[in-house]
Amino acid sequence: xxxxxxxxxxxxxxxxxxxxxxxxxxxxxxxxxxxxxxxxxxxxxxxxxxxxxxxxxxxxxxxxxxxxxxxxxxxxxxxxxxxxxxxxxxxxxxxxxxxxxxxxxxxxxxxxxxxxxxxxxxxxxxxxxxxxxxxxxxxxxxxxxxxxxxxxxxxxxxxxxxxxxxxxxxxxxxxxxxxxxxxxxxxxxxxxxxxxxxxxxxxxxxxxxxxxxxxxxxxxxxxxxxxxxxxxxxxxxxxxxxxxxxxxxxxxxxxxxxxxxxxxxxxxxxxxxxxxxxxxxxxxxxxxxxxxxxxxxxxxxxxxxxxxxxxxxxxxxxxxxxxxxxxxxxxxxxxxxxxxxxxxxxxxxxxxxxxxxxxx
Length: 360
Ligand code: AN7
Known about the structure:
Elements: H1 8-11, E1 34-36, H2 38-44, E2 47-52, H3 62-75, E3 80-84, H4 88-100, E4 103-109, H5 115-123, E5 127-131, H6 135-148, E6 152-153, H7 159-165, H8 167-176, E7 182-186, H9 191-206, E8 214-220, H10 225-228, H11 250-260, E9 263-267, H12 269-283, H13 289-303, E10 312-317, H14 346-353
Parallel strand pairs: 2-10, 3-4, 3-6, 4-5, 7-8, 7-10, 8-9
Antiparallel strand pairs: 1-2
Bound molecules: ligand AN7.
């Protein structure tokens, strides 16, 4: 009989703070594929793997943390959860809250989240409010509400989120048989950077791996507070998921970088979109722009001579391309691709495809 993956709380029950009193609110998250990327290995000389987190139930890595956060919220008697979001957290919060039969309220920056994510939150029956401000403003309000009203905060300032997300590192270690040499993630609030670092640290302590990977994290150039060491008041990037100027897990990320001899870098939107295209066209993996920054970061570090030949590198690509597909249809000069229209006729189609007829 086929074995069905049971979601990260059940699969890793022994490594999470859950008990018989914890209701397991799961949509089967985790167990995502770790995919070899020969085209990226060829470009860099490293042994490159892609952890495809878009394969989670709501299409992003946020599900790993949300199963934990919503399960613990329900255990504590919460009837409603709240979060601020650039889109993916709100989609996950909405889905897990609806599954649990509780309410979700989500605050998003007006006009700045991808259509797919907006649709998800509404489809899953969340109370979605667009705030006239950016993500950082939304988070401040969400924290304020959680402090003074009966709503449970499920942003990654809630440690349960980080705990759930650390399971991705466990999966990588199980598949590779050890930790990689380098692990690269996008950075928004730096929650995931922190979570992987914790997961790898625990794997090492258990004896499941022999080393801690160097953790590399990348922010978009117009939204790179950690890289530049100061809050960005008006963050800008086409990678809307990581348009964050004052990361919630900033301090934790600095500690994780120290611990792992890690690295933080900034990438331009142009290079993000180039990497986005390389990943979809040469590796066959479709992600949203924020996720492609892991690929762009790899290529930038390789060009700088900072990726040793033959080293094992894992890139986490955090969200599915179908959430924000418009970027796939844009050319480098910014115009939109319109597929060619052809008459309903085989010879016409063959002509447009440049096919010459074979004689039989
Ligand atoms: C696709 O949904 O912050 O550094 O509110 O959606 O752990 O914040 C999303 C973040 C990377 C950054 N890739 O992760 C939100 C939100 C994608 C994301 C990140 C996000 P963190």
